[in-house]
Amino acid sequence: MKKLNIIYILVTIVIMIFASLFYFDYLQNKKASLQKITYDKEVQAIKNNLDLLILTKKKATLAVAIALANDKTLIQELKSKHIDEKRYQKIIQSFKQNTLYKDIWIQVVDKNAVSMYRSWTSTKGDGLAKYRPEFQNLTLKTENYTSISVGRYNLSIKSIAPIVNNGEVLGAIEIISHFNSTTNILQQEDIESIIILKKEYTKQLKYPFTKLFLDDTYYIANIDASKEYRDYLSSNNVNRYFNDNYKLENGYLIISSAIKDVNNKILGYAIMFKKLQDISTLELKYFMFKYISLFIILVLIAAVALVVLLFTHNKKQKEYYQNILDSSTNIVVVTDGQEISYANEIFFHYFKQYENLEAMSKQHFCICDLFIKEDGFIQKNMNGVSWIEYLTSKNVQINKAKIKVDNNIYIFVITISKLKEYRGKVLVILEDVTSQETLLNMSITDELTQIGNRRHFNLHFESEVSRSKRYENHLSLIMCDIDFFKDVNDKYGHDKGDEVLVNYAQLISSHLRNEDIFCRVGGEEFTILLPNTGKDNAQKLAEKLRIVIEQYKISLAITMSFGVVELSMDENAGELYKRADEALYQAKESGRNRVVVG
Hints:
This protein is α+β, with helices and mostly antiparallel strands and 598 residues long. The chain contains 17 helices and 23 strands.
């Protein structure tokens, strides 16, 4: 029997070695495949979003056309052949103020398809039937119509509603909208887009609305098309992107989506850019984590199964298996999300007040009862579901929990794995990363003043500059330092100097918002990064701080000098920092205890 047991173990080891080799080769292939699937899904989602935005705009403009077509005032105007242009200008102005559609055009035609009013031009009185099929035989048309087409002014979305009075078609009203609001919404989702008209339709444009062209050949239909991306397409042969597909280039996912008319004829393409770094790879990471964890668990389960099979009735071997789990440096528990059915020895190393699980269950059924409620950490209930359901979902972004034990706060990384053999239960591994979190916090905190240090400032500076440019928000930077601080150290000693730094850093902090980033970047030099704040408000804050500091007189009476700058859209973070430093230098040179705006 003993010899047979050894054979079982050796065979299992050999099988597991070969299984490991094949399994990890499979994972590498699966990873590449899943990455392609991720991009395919992202592309489809963006295309679906574009289609939905266009469809929504068609329905919205058609709804406006129908509403205006049923207006009795318009019916009377058609009968009298006099259109009150001011009324429609007010309607258009209302759209600009209350909707995303900033460039709505309105056209009214009579039953002979003669234009009686155009909101975007003074031209009227011309017949449309000869080059607009939708206006031919207008008196016979009682159905609403919406399409995407190329006119003399732009590639646009057109919605037409007949104007009917007592069964007689008097004419029609047309609402024309452009692609600017659509591309603007995509831009808010970090997708830059360019709507390009095919070359053969460009000749139809007599009065191009956007006046934007690519290579003097291809008309661009959205007025907010970024020059950076226009230049990219120009330098990389725009014809390569005229397909209903996508490419991975230069750190971007570049998606081409055909713009079609009602006859399914391709008029142009929406070419959309999304940075690869902005595409969620959580599913891929979760896949790798899940299957590597699964493999580890399967190895563990296989080992356990072998031990149980061979030593079911051997108490000593059961104790040996228990010792394996107890020797883990991580907490290991089995739970259904409420009651804990198993906990290893390290669990009771942390929760010393409980002799066993039964003693714990008298106060807390679930370990989640001990989770501290704090943003950025797992809590008992997450977005309306239990913590177990949340952690086993595919969209997990947070997997850390704070737990209070005997007045000590611990931070754990939580790993969840389902146990098929135990329906409804999962294996939960809690890895103590408290010291790592503490070190990270220490690395970005100034040891003396307990505000951010230069590393903290650098970590946020570039990202805030990028965010400000992307969303065109204000961003200001204040640089300040203590006047004659060397004299303080020389006269009163460095201990007194440190006391001054601490007290006045606390004073400044008390006058800042939560979103403001206050850091000590040098001996007596500080920076204040102010998101969503223009230069004028930044100057007011700096002047307020200057007066408060001058009047504070705790530890020692000091003054501070301030340099204030606001980010310009054509400069980078380094240039902004340099301007702030120069403004501070001017404040020092011109007498100190003052604010200079650069």
